[in-house]
Amino acid sequence: MIVILVPGFWLGASSWRDVEPPLTAAGHTVRALTLPGLDADADRSGIGVRDHVAAIVAAIDAENEPVVLVGHSGGGPLVYAAADARPDRVARIVFVDAGPLTSGASINDALPAEGADVPLPDWAAFEEAELAGLTGELRERMRAEAVPQPAAVTREPVELSDERRRAIPATVICTSMPAAQVRELIAAEHPYMAELAAMSDVDLVDLPTGHWPQFSRPADLGAAIVAALG
Fold it and tell me: What is the pTM for the complete model shown?
């Protein structure tokens, strides 16, 4: 299958490099994306959610067969919005420590911005569970690769319009939050889980580590994605 990998905030295609080998070894074709504004010298002032969704939709349209969309963290709502735009072209969605948002919600408008940029915060801003498995060396590597996120992408609402998106099979790979806790939040009708609860075919898979498994457990993440594709 064609697997389109979409990174979370601050990261580009290179963040998936250690995840790709298990996918290609299993016979899948990998397309790792760097979204608009995530090049180091990019002008991020005019880039918003629609630009990121459009880039993913363009990657879907470039293929001659249905694709699998994999979205990490803030990339999760973006791939879901792209699936909403092309529900008949997406065979499965894989959320990596992520999930879909309801229409009109922003991905994370609490992140501090510096003009048009949202830089990667200091590590102290994250919870311990998010940093699990991210050694000092891995933190240095990730920060060296990190590029400021376009501020508008963190703040603008995600727009959804086609309810066929909810019938697309999905897998949530739970890393910093265990699957049992996700199920509890769904049962409690937590607003953040409303769209996930509305999807008709969702598998929850545990991969215990922090929020960035593509750095802390890349081979295992690749294997989990392969397993999700059957």
Answer: 0.97
pLDDT in tens, 152-199: 999 999 999 999 999 999 999 999 999 999 999 999 999 999 999 999
Reduce the DSSP state of residue 148 to 3 states and report it.
coil
pLDDT for 10-37, tens place per residue?
A: 999 999 999 999 999 999 999 999 999 9
Q: What is the CA radius of gyration of the chain?
A: 16
Structural domains counted in the chain: 1
Range of the domain at 102: 2-228
- Residue 56: CATH number of its domain: 3.40.50.1820
Question: Encoding tokens for residue 113?
Answer: 């911005």
Measured between alpha carbons, how far is 10 from 125 in angstroms, rounded to an integer?
15
Torsions phi, psi for 21 (to 5 deg): -55, -45
SS3 state at 33: coil
Q: What is the DSSP string of 75-125?
A: HHHHHHHHHHH-TTSEEEEEEES-----TT-BS-TTS--BTTEEPPPPGGG
Task: Please give the Cα distance from 199 to 57 (Å, whole number).
Answer: 20
Q: How far is CA 153 from CA 27, 58, 61, 197, 216, in A?
A: 33, 18, 22, 24, 26
Burial of 58 (0-12, 13-18, 19+ CB in 10 A): exposed
What is the C-alpha separation between 182 and 100, in angstroms, rounded? 13
Least Cα distance to 120 among 129, 110, 112, 132 occurs for 112
